[in-house]
Specification:
Residues about 185-225 have low confidence and may be disordered. It is built from 18 helices and no strands. It is globular and about 70 Å long. Helix content is about 75%, strand content about 0%. The longest helix is centred in the middle third of the chain and has 46 residues, at about 140-185. The protein starts with a helix and ends with a helix. Pfam families: Mem_trans (PF03547).
Length: about 425
């Protein structure tokens, strides 16, 4: 294929995302009577999460994924883990160099490490297969494989996002709220103030400890125990409880993610794809329950347009704010959309040369593209959850996704020509 043909194949899916996303952004404004209002977006997001996406994932996996495929894809979870690890290092370097406000620290690290592993690949990768003269073989086979790869990526990415990224956002948010509370609430005991400040800077002091100091900790007991000893004892107990609480929270979040509808659909899709007699129940013209597969395919077809409209509606919030410095936005964009994909390309090529990857070039394309994806949209959900940095998050997501429209086209064109 010539360069112009490669550019056309790579750019069409991105342009489709831009057009539908722009429509979603317009639908969230007063020009369309706020048709995509925040409440409606929440409701539609639930429908996509609970119905459309699981249907698409199951239908794709059951039809095109076998037990041998699952074994041969073992490098994908390793690859996603590497993207989070290296992206986290790049984000940490930016924090040290830029020295931003504590409110933005977690966002910078999360934006560099956590890519959109599901929704965006689910839109872009199958669309490349649908182009005439596509580079990855027959359109139908390529499309099924692309949806399977993207769905598997989404299931795995969700686990990393709701563990690693969740804790990154949470820890910085708690530190920020604790320091913010410490400036408002003044504790009488000077010794305790110094101790509290130290704990706050270490990120071990929650806003509840600062804002709601138990009076019993400052009453001298009958054995004449000092106020300072009681305060330190209380803080020590709270610190231990905090660590244990954090561990339980992480494990519960991981279990919750594994029990999410897309993850459950992935499991059953794998099961039906791997077990021949289950597969024959729903797949094929003579399958007795083929109507179930057809219904799921019909529901799954609503996933991509709804996701893209929601993406545009959510990003529109970033147009109303200028709360992040331009240097921060430029740094995140360079680290996430340029430096990380270059590192990822070398890693994937090295794995391919060592014989660790399937021969399918589409699989390698997906692996490299995982490094080039803009930040995960779930980051905005986390900032809303902790009520810290929501405005800044909208700005970062808006400009990184605008930049990704150009970089994804460039990377796709380059990867198609190389792979």
């Amino acid at each position: 294929m010539g360069f112009l043909n490669l550019l056309e194949v790579a750019s069409v899916p991105v342009i489709q995302v831009l057009l539908i996303g722009a429509l979603g952004a317009m639908m969230s404004t007063h020009y369309f009577d706020h048709l995509l209002s925040p409440d409606f977006r929440k409701s539609l997001n639930k429908v996509v999460f609970l119905v459309f996406t699981p249907s698409l994932v199951f239908a794709s996996f059951a039809k095109s994924v076998s037990l041998a495929d699952m074994i041969s894809w073992w490098f994908m979870p390793v690859n996603i883990g590497i993207t989070f690890f290296i992206g986290g290092i790049l984000g940490w370097i930016l924090v040290k160099l830029l020295k931003p406000n504590l409110k933005v620290e977690g966002l910078i690290i999360a934006s560099c490490s956590s890519g959109n592993m599901g929704n965006l690949p689910l839109v872009i990768i199958p669309a490349i297969c649908d182009e005439k003269g596509g580079p990855f073989g027959r359109s139908d086979i390529c499309h099924n494989n692309a949806v399977s790869y993207a769905s598997f990526s989404m299931a795995l990415g969700g686990i990393f996002i709701w563990t690693y990224t969740y804790q990154t956002i949470r820890s910085r948010s708690m530190r920020y709220k604790a320091l913010e509370a410490a400036e408002i609430v003044k504790i009488p005991n000077k010794d305790f103030d110094a101790n509290a400040e130290t704990l706050l800077l270490k990120g071990e002091y929650s806003e509840n400890i600062v804002a709601e100091v138990p009076t019993s900790d400052y009453i001298v007991d009958p054995e004449n125990q000092s106020i300072e000893e009681q305060g330190q004892s209380s803080v020590s107990k709270k610190g231990k409880e905090s660590v244990w609480h954090r561990l339980i929270e992480v494990l519960s979040q991981l279990v919750e993610e594994l029990m999410s509808p897309p993850a459950i659909a992935s499991f059953f899709g794998f099961l039906f794809g791997a077990v021949a007699w289950l597969r024959n129940l729903i797949i094929g013209d003579d399958a007795p329950l083929a109507v179930i597969q057809d219904s799921l395919v019909l529901l799954g077809n609503g996933t991509i347009p709804c996701i893209t409209l929601l993406l545009g509606g959510n990003l529109a919030q970033g147009l109303k704010s200028s709360s992040v410095k331009p240097l921060t936005l430029i740094s995140i964009t360079i680290a996430k959309l340029f430096i990380l994909p270059v590192i990822g390309l070398f890693i994937v090529k090295a794995a391919a040369n060592l014989g660790l990857l399937p021969l399918d070039p589409l699989f390698q394309y997906v692996l490299v593209l995982q490094y080039a994806m803009p930040p995960a949209m779930n980051i905005s959900i986390m900032t809303q959850l902790f009520d810290v940095g929501t405005e800044e998050c909208s700005v970062i997501l808006l400009w990184t996704y605008v930049s990704a429209a150009i970089t994804l086209t460039a990377w796709s064109t380059f990867l198609i020509s190389v792979l």
